[in-house]
Design goal:
The complex is a heterodimer of chains A (291) and B (329). By secondary structure, chain A is mostly helical. In chain A, 73% of the residues lie in helices and 2% in strands. Chain B has a two-stranded antiparallel sheet with strand order 1-4. In chain B, strands 2-3 form a two-stranded antiparallel ribbon. The longest helix of chain B has 27 residues. The chains are: A mainly alpha (291), B mainly alpha (329).
Amino acid sequence: MPTLSDLLQFLFAGLTNGAVYALIALGFCVVHNTMGIVNFTQVDLVSLGGMFLYSALFLLGLPMPLALLGAVAASALSGALVERLGIRPSRSDDHLVLIFLTIGLSVILRGVMKLAWGKNRMAVPPLTADEPIRLWGATLLPQILWILLLTGGAVLILAWVFRRTALGLCMRGVASNPAAAAIVGIDGGRIRMVSFAIAGGVGGLAGALVTPITTLSYDVGVLLGLKGFAAAILGGFGSFVGAIAGGLLLGLLESLAAAGLSSAYKEVIAFGILLLVLFVRPTGLLGKRKG
Amino acid sequence: MTPRDKILYFLRLHRTGLTVWLLAGFLLAFPALAGNPYVLGISNLIAVYLIAVIGLNLFIGYAGQISLGHAAYVGLGAYGSALLTIHFDLNPWVAMAAVAAAVAFAAFLVAIPTLRLSGHYLAMATLGFNIVCHTVMTQWDQVTGGPSGLAGIPPLSLGGVSIDDEAKFHYLVWSFAIVVLTLGLNLARSSLGLALAAVAQNETAAESLGIQVGRAKTRVFVLSAVLASLSGSLFAHCFTFINPDSFTIFNSIELVTMVVIGGLGSIWGSLFGTTLIVLLPEFLHFFDAFRDIIHGLILVTVLILLPQGLVSGLRDLLRIKLLAGRNNA
């Protein structure tokens, strides 16, 4: 029988993973809203965040805050490059083609990371010293607080950009009607590139934050990223509130399932729940119904 | 008509059937030409994949749906055959049929809720199903042997002859592949094939023409799952050893790559795409580190330049060139 402190422990773990899934889910949603596709390179942008943090710390010798900032910026730049060099030349508006295109680009990115950083697992240090904090019998790593804090900050900044800036208005315009947006002079290509950059930024932040508590390797983002996708789907694809709710819900359910049932089948439970939700509500929990 | 016209007309009328016979004739002679078990092993692998790829192409290319989890059905076929023959001593043919029937039923059950989903939701559901299957294969080690997999799967036998070397397996697996190829070519021209093409273009319009969209999608999904399961069973009996690494989402993506490179909806394209992707590592021995990058680059280049696939795309280009030439003359 799990005690209260055990339960609290699992709650923290679930919230932490949930926050990371929510960040990745936001990246999926931003690109979906401007282009209408699933961007599978999102999973590699998460790995890239961890990789850039590693290189900034150990290759360039930067202090942690600068390294984290650099990693996020470099991931955002990678996202923009993926759109400019990989997606835009296709000039296709067939969603099937575009989705397969992002799958191909994702294969390339993983190949490049394998070449640049090797196949071995690496360790990244957490943001601040590893002294666990005790809280009602549960132990709490400072990194977990950082994850929750920075995720919250990123969500607020994104919300501000989307609601209060001209850029956000343009992005919402393209999302709601690309043709009308083009008529009033919004450069759709630039907006799509910015949305990929935002996806890269939040993905990179998620990667840089989570790799100290997992490990870092060229494919660490795949499972994390797909769970982020699952979170976005769970919340109703395209809805930002849904993405955050879906992420936290998925993280908590996964953690509680691992506690109550079996941690080996964590993945089965997470995706099993997702499939069940989709079967009951084919457009996710907060998604709009068609028609 | 002159006799020459008659022959040309006959060739034109029966071009698809004649090409299939030509391919079959070539494959009949192939073991004598290849002479090397290693080459035969690779061509057998092409045939095994081809069966699953044609099934997947019917689902993606004709019906316009997304599946990023077909390796799961290949895995179910492989594990089903392996478990039934190792633990229950069942005849491999009976096992293959039983597993295919079970997978068909499972796919039918999965299809009812899944095919209501569209686009991204379907992509996620199929991916999720693949991850669930792979995790079970890896974790349930009392039954599946865990990450190290199952060994000692008995070879197939036909009329008392055990099919235990590459040449014998060549004839068996390519017979399957040719039958599936013919099935695919014919299905495209059947009422189901036409219905699926309509569904791919516009579901509402298809429905208004009296096509039962859900039923058409379910049928092609079940068919493609059964073909994947057969491919998995043949895979298991060919290599007599399987482990979960062959049935990950990356393998699903590889299957999709084969479909896309050959061309969505092109059965001959699937033959080409499968051959290319299976052969690629053989040519890239020296560039093993670049393998993923080259794989991805091929997929991306084809999608950007010829989104309808290499085979259909080049054929269309050629046709346009010829027509332009004729008009200028």
